[in-house]
Fold this sequence. Notes:
Blueprint: H1 14-41, H2 51-74, H3 87-111, H4 117-143, H5 147-155, E1 158-162, H6 166-176, H7 179-182, E2 184-189, E3 199-200, E4 203-207, H8 212-219, E5 223-226, H9 233-245, E6 249-252, H10 257-261, E7 270-271, H11 288-294, E8 298-302, H12 307-317, E9 323-328, H13 331-344, E10 350-354, H14 360-370, E11 374-377, H15 384-389, H16 391-411, E12 416-422, H17 431-451, E13 482-488, E14 490-492, H18 498-507, E15 512-514, E16 520-521, E17 523-525, H19 526-539, E18 545-548, E19 554-555, H20 556-566, E20 577-579, E21 600-601, E22 607-610, H21 617-632, H22 636-646
Parallel strand pairs: 1-2, 1-5, 2-4, 5-6, 8-9, 8-11, 9-10, 11-12, 12-13, 13-18, 14-17, 15-20
Antiparallel strand pairs: 3-4, 6-7, 16-19, 18-22, 21-22
Helix pairs in contact: 1-2, 1-4, 2-3, 3-4, 12-19, 14-16, 16-17, 16-21, 18-20, 21-22
Amino acid sequence: MKKxxxxxxxxxxxxxKVALLMMAYDAFAVNFAYFLALLLRHEMNFSAIDAEYIExxxxxxxxxxxxxxxxxWVLRLYRSLWRFAxxxxxxxxxxxVGITSAFHISIVTLFYYRMPISYYVMGTxxxxxxxxxxxxxxxxxxxxxxxxxxxxxxSAPRLLLVGAGNAGQMILRDLxxxxxINGKVCCIIDDNPNKxxxxxxxVPIVGGREKxxxxxxxxxxxxxxxxxxxxxxxxRRKVLKICQETGCELKNLPGMFQLVNGDxxxxxMKDVSIEDLLGRDPIxxxxxxxxxxxxxxxxxxxxxxxxxxxxxxxxxxxxxxxxLIIFDVYENNAYEIQQELRRKHPEIDLVVxxxxxxxxxxxxxxxxxxxxxxxxxxAAHKHVPLMEESPCEAIKNNAIGTYKTAYAAMKNKCKRxxxxxTDKAVNPTNVMGASKRICEMIIQTFDFMIRIHEEYKLPxxxxxxxxxxxxxxxxxxxxxxxxxxxxxxxxxxxxGSVIPLFRKQIEDGGPVTVTHPEIIRYFMTIPExxxxxxxxxxxxxxxxxxxxxxGEPVKIDTLARNLIKLSGFTPDRDIKIVYTGLRPGEKxxxxxxxxxxxxxxxxNNLIHIGKPIAIDHESFLxxxxxxxxxxxxxxxxxxxxxxxxxxxxYKPATVHPLPGDTTH
Length: 664
């Protein structure tokens, strides 16, 4: 018969072994504390102690031991992780000693023998010291680390903390929990002079923000944590720019949310993003009217899996549309946003469809089946150099795809059609920009034809003769769709944006490639751009080209250098910057308006309206039809001539030589 393995000390969990040893220690300590009190009372002379005192102490010893151990167990003093002992453990030990001392005094006095007052006072004091000492000694012992831990600490980062407020103190406490991993906080910066030359957890507060460069050199700092959640964006940006110049790696506490919830740890710190250094405050829009506009409507987002399209879907999903339809040709992107929205908004009526805006049958089927009230048309090819190499694809997808989507929207009496355009459509120097300008002209043509009630004259563009006339509108058709375009510049973090490219190049150790040292661009974050696009859609009366105010343009060279510094490197020393020359179709700067357009104000100071340029709509439609046929015939040379005919402001980019380049 197999013997059962009886539990033994060796088979206990580590914490159980520690608990048993601690109980044995406590059994000795609580009684020795009062014996020591008797000894001190009699000047450490054991023979001078009265026999009644010794007898009382010894008789009460087993009762007191059992009471103490039972109480300590109930108060969970044997289950604490003492390597992390803090105020919580200190408070419970104090409570435990208070209760046991009261028990000791009352029972001994009432049922045994009246002991000297000094016995009770010193016994309580010694018991508290013995219990506290052994428990916190373990934590202090861990501070004296092994040689290996000391070596790790030596190689760990040297940190500077900006902010001596509540958030800074929480971060500092969290950093101290694992110094060998997190690094050593050498000093703290705070703009409040009242805090200077004082200490938090032994770390000196050395001065205001102007001291940052000096302290970085003095202490050999290689990482800076900025914990200023309640500071204004402007103030925080000033501090970050000073920190950035030091070349240290930066971490930033984003905002007030964690502070309000008391949830501030090292994990709350984020890498400082380039958005933090844009040079302007984030655009904050009042979207009340937008959400009222969206609520209860069926909304279609073409290109809904892309960077702009997916953010449109996120913001729309938050505000109770009747139905949200995501239409995209790329299934992976569509699947990702579908899963995200189903997880975050399980209540929404979400339809995700795969298809191309170039496919007349598919796009017509979508409109006929779901009858969307509003269309955000974000589907487009946007990569400038790639479209220079494939101009036929740019026209097929951007121009003809927009026409077919707009035609289906008008035919199915969609209320609003919002085209996502670009500043590259202004005086375009590349095929992509020219194709987006053609898209703007398409929506203006549709709006014009609706206003004069000649929708039936719009051709139903089909490549195959068998489809010709299939979707032709009758002469008595009355369109209700308002067509508008929204134009803005580069979007940080979007697909094809220069920021992800720079980050990847920095991760790979460089070089970072910049096309030209003088090239400039307008930048906006994805949520900023999308919120303004949605507001412009509400304002639409028809035919407008809304232009978003994107602040001051930014030099791409400066952007690259800032990103290198934010990553903790020095430009041209740790990470080289290489100038490669402008790519095909690229120009040094982008414009938001053509000279002919002028500018009209709206009630939103960040959204303007470009006055429509006169278009010969009949001639434009004929040219557009020729472009479709030529693009599908893959005749690039003839197509470029037609683009120039359709877009008079299209001028292919001239080469801008790099400084010192004598080959041009």
